[in-house]
């Protein structure tokens, strides 16, 4: 078998496996604040800036409307966000944090440190990994 066709030679497999592992590390930490990983990502986007349109959130998270809309509906049902149609264009839905969603930010502030500790590596190592991944992603666009 050609060396380049062996699993150990592939770049995609360890990246895929690492992605799954990182999400698995986040899972129990996020359960403490009653969020799934995708919900956590949405909350981070909104904690940075709100209100935002559904498509703006989807663009930032690389999620299409078919994925982001049900996610946002579940978050609204949990009382974390509100969904409001734009009065000028009813096709546009704006997403804002509720008071509960805003208050959750204080608890969520502990998540990054807990993740670093659970992974057993230094914050500097994680930042190097993130920087390299971002570099590759930016070139792929």
What is the topological layout?
Elements: H1 12-31, H2 37-48, E1 52-53, H3 54-61, H4 65-77, E2 81-85, E3 93-97, H5 99-108, H6 111-119, H7 123-140
Antiparallel strand pairs: 1-3, 2-3
Notes on the structure:
- With 141 residues, this protein is mainly alpha-helical.
- It has one domain (3-115): Orthogonal Bundle (Arc Repressor Mutant, subunit A).
- The protein has 7 helices and 3 strands, in the order ααβααββααα.
- Strands 1-3-2 form a 3-stranded antiparallel sheet.
- α1 packs across α6 (111-119) and α3 crosses α4.
- The radius of gyration is 18 Å and the shape is globular.
- It starts with 11 loop residues before the first helix and ends with a helix.
Name the structural class. mainly alpha
| Termini Cα gap | 33 Å
The CATH architecture category equals Orthogonal Bundle
CATH fold node name? Arc Repressor Mutant, subunit A
Q: Mean pLDDT, as a whole number? A: 92
Count of DSSP strands: 3
Number of spatially distinct domains: 1
What descriptive keywords fit this protein?
three-stranded antiparallel beta sheet; globular; Arc Repressor Mutant, subunit A; 141 residues; mainly alpha; 9% strand
